[in-house]
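Residues determine shape. Take a concrete instance:
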Amino acid sequence: MRKPLLVAAVAALSSLVGVVPLSHAQRATTTSTAAPSERPNIVVIMTDDQDAASVKYMPHVKELLTERGVKFTQHTVVFPICCPSRSGYLTGQVGHNNHVRGNTPPEGGYDNLDTSQTLPVWLSEAGYTTTHLGKYPNGYDGHQHPETGGVPPGYSEWHGALDPTTYLFYNYVLNENGVDVPHGRTEADYQTDVLTGLATDYIDRNAPEDAPFFLDVAYLAPHWEIRPGSTGDVNVGDLEGSSGAESSIGVPPVPAPRHLGMFANAKAPRGPAFNEEDVSDKPTYVRDMDPLTDGQIDQIDRWYRKRLASLQAIDEGIEQIVNALDESGELDNTYLIFTSDNGWMQGQHRISLQKVRAYTEASVVPLTVIGPGVKQGEKVLDPTSHVDLPATILDLAGAAPPASHKLDGMSLAPYLRKPHLRLGRAVFQETSADEAGYYSVLTGRWKYVEYNNGDRELYDLVADPYQLTSLHREPSTKPVRQRLAKLIDRFRDCAGEDCVVTGFSAS
């Protein structure tokens, strides 16, 4: 079934010149004729706002996923903020095609998403049983689908977190197959653990069935906690044994009780870009920032400790999910995909507690895959995109969207079997259409950004991985800038295979 994809990938590898769009033969456009029982299960585990560097503090991920699978080192989200990123994952389309370009209306939010054309719908039509656990695109509150009690199309089973309680680790509400079920403040109500329990129970119940299953687990951590109705500063002393107030965006993530106090002496990474001294080459919004104060740095460190501690329950949950697959006899026939919706800025380039930005810390996220035929302990160095995930999952499942729905990504299946492939991939990001928005393109070497207000950035990531010195004004980089600018022009209104570029070479 996937041999043509490998042949096409090798062909692309042999000619890294120019810009070559993928043909339909390289995409997930055919339906498998295999019997349902022979087709693999798919499990996707997605964290929220997890920077790629923090994975090293998750020992079970390292042992069970990284060492047993393929790690993608340049996996980039199209729009580094929750709702657009998750909508891209569900539709396989970028924002200008799926019409979700923000967390809230009018540009974004759940109500802008066409839920009739999403990954679970296509997998369900292909014979998969499907379920979702946890967070869904922002604005889902259960009222959008009254005919099904709030369950979106395509799901055989549904346990979705309801806004506005989605961002609470306690006292949240799950829509459980059309019934709103509130959870309280006891230790057993901790959201991460509840979702893990639902996941392992689902595996136990579905493993004996003939139909393959798709399980989508969307954890809240390490996202901060947002309490409904709160405006301004929020006191965190009642939950975390501390006093004082945090910023108006909320409070740090709440670790499970058993993990409180972990990483008590940890400090956020102090890499070369932390509290960058000279930002004269940066866009206007960075140049307008003062250096971080001691108080801001202290806040970054406190949030960092809570973020790492909150990830420990997810790490344990991944171990439990893998063990459940193993004990059910399904592990050898299951692809497990671990990723996040976007990253997080923690003082790099003076940017504190933010995402959205084009910099690596916000836009490059973890992606590791294990499963049948996947190489073990290998890395993929080519850039890849979050909108590649639906094409990949459909390819592995032998399923496809209808011909009328064009996928803007490519299947990553060739990398799973040949991680050292270098296809000359170029991937892009787009954000809001207002003055603060931007378009960017990432290749194996270059990161180029065009802001809607006219600002520009260009980084040679081989020589300058921390993005300290923008080369957008350097005369010697003019040929590179021109080629990358042409790519951005192409990406601005691309659709389908025109959004996929391989064979790009710029020196």
Remarks:
- The longest strand covers residues 378-385.
- Residues 224 and 253 are 4 Å apart (CA to CA).
